[in-house]
Design goal:
Elements: H1 2-16, H2 26-35, E1 44-45, H3 46-52, H4 58-67, H5 71-76, H6 82-118, H7 127-132, H8 139-148, H9 168-219, E2 222-229, E3 240-247
Antiparallel strand pairs: 1-2, 2-3
Helix pairs in contact: 1-2, 4-9, 6-9
Amino acid sequence: MKNTFAILLFVSLLFSCKINAQSKSFQELLKESQDCPISERVIESNYADNFSRSKKSTGLAMLYSFILPGMGELYGGNYNTGKYFTIADGALWITLSGMSAYGNNQRDNYIAFAKSFGGISANGKTDQFYADIAGYNSVDDFNNQQLLDRNFEGTYNADTHYWKWQNSEKRIEYKNTWTSSENAFNNIKFVAGALILNRVISVINAIRIVHAYNKSLNTELGWKVSLGLDKFAETMPTSLTVNLSTSF
């Protein structure tokens, strides 16, 4: 149907370039029509774009947004809101990397500090051990408190888990460094949660955009042909414009 209409339009254009078509052959008429200064040689065909578009996959949009928030929206053809999810994801990853680096650096610092001023051996020690030595001046003080609390399982072997701070000030200094490291690692959990939440919201937004895109294909079908001509004969108008549009 489209091809038939285009052929009819082109044939009518050929005959419009000659006032008396019967006096010349078809080859001459064709040559003369090619010599006509046409301002728009290429027919503008919006319908071709509409027919060439195809539905987009909701599953792919979800996958793209889960991998990198905003990419599902870009796939769906609307990155206006998606770009904010991409920017947020980048900022969150930078924050997570910074917190992780800071937490690990502070951990190295408090372990080295405990070796120097608490007399500990770092081999085979758990995170709970590093937390416990922040609250007691020595392993004996810690074990005595556990015995008073009748927590016999919670005592340490003084030979393998020995510590004794030079003074309370050193213990408090250690505790501050340990606390800053723990806070950094705890904040990483919130950032990780924000990364997941950012993806969930982006996935939902991408689904909405793809649904809207696919719905537009089902409810809108249109095509328009426009053709402009400059003056090509003394007896014809300066310009000729043909417009045809259809929508459903």
